[in-house]
Every structure is written in C-alpha cells, then in structure tokens.
Amino acid sequence: MGHAPVAKLTAKGRATRERIVRAASALMLERGVARTTIEDIQQAANVSTSQMYHYFGDKGDLVAAVIDLQSNQVLGGQQLELHRVDSIAALVRWRNALVDVMRGRACVGGCPIGSLASELSDTDPLARARLTRAFAQWEDLIRDGLEAIAARGELPPGVDVDRLALAMLAGVQGGLLLSQVRRDTGPLEAAVDVMIEHLLDMGVR
Hints:
9 helices, single chain, Arc Repressor Mutant, subunit A, elongated, Tetracycline Repressor, domain 2, mainly alpha
C-alpha cells in the first residue's frame, strides 16, 4: 500500500507527518541514518506503525523527507544572509554570521546536509541526488553574491565567479567539518577568511 501524498493530507495529517520528519531528523543527525530505526522514530514521534506507513512507504521515503527538511532550513538561513551580499564588506558579515552560528552551538553538529551527505552519498543514489541539488542551490546563492560584488567593481572584469563560488562552498564545508571535530571555530574562520583575502587581493590590481 502506498503512502499518502503530502498535497492530499489534512492539516492534522500534515502536522503528524511533520512531527515524524522532525523526530527522524533529530535522531538521524544525532545517531546517523543507519543506526536510526523506524521503531526509534515511531517512539520519538509517538505514532503507531500504521500511522508511520500511512505517511512513509519505507525508510528511504523518510530519509528523503529529512534531507528536504534540513536542506530547507539550511538554505533558508543562507538565503537570508547571502541575498544581502553585494560587497566584500557584506561578505565579511556573512562570514561572521556563519562563525557566530557555529560558536553558538559550541561547534557541535557541523553542517546538517554535509553530515547527511557524508553518510549517504556512497550508498544511496537517490539521497545523493537530493543532496547534490541542495549544495547546488547553496553554490548558486554564493555565486549571486559574488556576481553582485563583481558588478560593483570590487572584482576584476571576467573573474570566474562559478569557480570562486564552488571554492567558497568547499571551504565552508571543510571548515564546518574541522570545526566540528576540533570543537573550535578556527578552521571555519581560516577557510572563509583566506577566500575573502584572495578576493581582496584580486581587486587590488
């Protein structure tokens, strides 16, 4: 029997589904996807087996919903910050916001979509496709900011903003991971600061 499509759910049904996804998300990020069972999620969300399978056909459906939830949360926050980026000074403010968030969590957790990608990319092609799309959207947000900076004349004409955006995202992801491991925001600060210094050097010519 197939699970109920989200669009056809009642308000109560959507609330129950969201409760399940949030419970699954918390457990999967804490324990890992592989070590989180359907039974664990049922208990955490306080739902029955029949309710669980009414909303999700299998664990893969639930993992997809968790990826979507975390992607929306991370990208929503990034969009709020990055849509204001139109200068290198504004890019520094985005950098500071990233560091403040990580410091506020005592460097616990890293990047939620990065953590999911690390566990799922080699074993779950459908999850990897979803995660690839999320990272591409994040890269696009960074590229838009860099294009705005270039349009102000703070970067040289013809600069490869695509490559810069990819490098910036790679730096952020690596910085978040090492900051999580070290419980220190230093790696994140170093990764983004070096990229910003590179942009400043480009503009000096």
